[in-house]
């Protein structure tokens, strides 16, 4: 079986360096991250007496570029790994992938392989959706591979002999799901007998992007209050770990209904409400978290952030979560009753098969 794979290629401005990558999305499996493996093609005459270095950089922009004045910069760059690609160290032992082997065979003796390993606790790629009038680079966490010609790893690179290729670090939905989310909220009222009970159940814990979220609602009104309206919503929580008060929530899908209302004292109502959290209905909303973007590619709402331990939160620059919330309106004097359930919104795990690659 022969399958054509897309190979990503980028050339330096002076045409002397060319980087080849088989993919630009690298999966975080919680316990480990897929290695970044590629090949660089060099101009031998230009590189006489020179060295080539490669780095993986995680860039965290936490403020608007247009607000940077008097040397203030709302961006932090973290160098996750760095190594010398050419001349290759003598003791270097690389386990080449099939793609690297075929690229080396096709490109000739001036091609050299490289492999970078992203640390386990590095944050996932996230982009904060800018406003309509915002300019410059969007806030969020972005990754790119940088290859350059220099004397050392800390040497200042020159633009004409430097290649910066954007990549993404992504997470997929876990194969093992947890318990079905369920919660019960009971509220009693001062100087009133009985209580109002709200039970909310989701049909599963993990949803894929584009799926409908089924919210099962059961209301048992054993109080003397009247439920006049029901509102169900999906909220996206964004926690920017750099700031002490950097948490906020955005409602990305909601339904408000009076069907079955008013729910009189002593009555019961069971209802299923469907919500679809998607980017299409939130494209103009500033501050919505999106999956990391690559040029000329569409994206979607950011996937939920999976952590091996809650202690790792500080290392993840932006933590994204989702909750389904149901709110009952009891009128001006009765107040409100609400219940929340967290769930995961992610992409399904991609299954790869071992095949022979044909390089065009």
From TrEMBL:
PROSITE patterns: ARRESTINS. GO terms for biological process: desensitization of G protein-coupled receptor signaling pathway; negative regulation of phospholipase C-activating phototransduction signaling pathway; photoreceptor cell maintenance; sensory perception of smell. Gene3D superfamilies: 2.60.40.640, 2.60.40.840. InterPro entries: Arrestin, Arrestin-like_C, Arrestin-like_N, Arrestin_C-like, Arrestin_CS, Arrestin_N, Ig_E-set. Residues 192-350 form the Arrestin C-terminal-like domain. GO terms for cellular component: rhabdomere. It holds the Pfam family Arrestin_N. Keywords: Sensory transduction. Belongs to the arrestin family. This is Arrestin C-terminal-like domain-containing protein. It comes from Ranatra chinensis.
């Amino acid at each position: 079986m022969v399958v054509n794979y897309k190979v990503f290629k980028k050339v330096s401005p002076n045409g002397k360096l060319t980087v080849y990558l088989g993919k630009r999305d690298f999966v975080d499996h919680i316990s480990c991250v897929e290695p970044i493996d590629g090949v660089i093609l060099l101009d031998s005459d230009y590189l006489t007496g020179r060295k080539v270095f490669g780095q993986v950089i995680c860039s965290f922009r936490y403020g608007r570029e247009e607000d940077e004045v008097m040397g203030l910069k709302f961006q932090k760059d973290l160098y996750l790994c760095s190594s010398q690609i050419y001349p290759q160290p003598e003791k270097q032992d690389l386990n080449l992938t099939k793609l690297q082997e075929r690229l080396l065979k096709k490109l000739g003796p001036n091609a050299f392989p490289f492999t970078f390993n992203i640390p386990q606790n590095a944050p996932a790629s996230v982009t904060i959706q800018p406003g309509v009038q915002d300019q410059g680079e969007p806030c969020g966490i972005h990754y790119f591979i940088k290859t350059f010609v220099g004397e050392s790893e800390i040497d200042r690179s020159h633009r004409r002999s430097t290649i910066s290729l954007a990549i993404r670090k992504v997470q997929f939905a876990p194969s093992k799901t947890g318990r079905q989310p369920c919660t019960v909220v009971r509220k009693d009222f001062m100087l009133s007998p009985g209580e109002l009970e709200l039970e909310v159940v989701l049909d599963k814990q993990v949803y894929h992007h584009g799926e409908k979220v089924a919210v099962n609602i059961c209301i048992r009104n054993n109080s003397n209050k009247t439920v006049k309206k029901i509102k169900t919503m999906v909220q996206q929580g964004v926690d920017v770990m750099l700031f002490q008060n950097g948490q906020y929530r955005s409602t990305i899908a909601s339904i408000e209904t009076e069907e079955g209302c008013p729910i009189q004292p002593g009555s019961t109502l069971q209802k299923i409400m469907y919500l679809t959290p998607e980017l299409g209905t939130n494209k103009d909303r500033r501050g919505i978290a999106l999956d990391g973007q690559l040029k000329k590619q569409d994206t979607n709402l950011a996937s939920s952030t999976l952590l091996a331990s809650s202690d790792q939160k500080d290392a993840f620059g932006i933590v994204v979560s989702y909750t389904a919330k149901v709110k009952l309106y009891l009128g001006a004097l009765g107040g409100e009753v609400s219940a929340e359930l967290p769930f995961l919104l992610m992409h399904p795990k991609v299954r790869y098969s071992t095949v022979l690659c044909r390089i065009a």
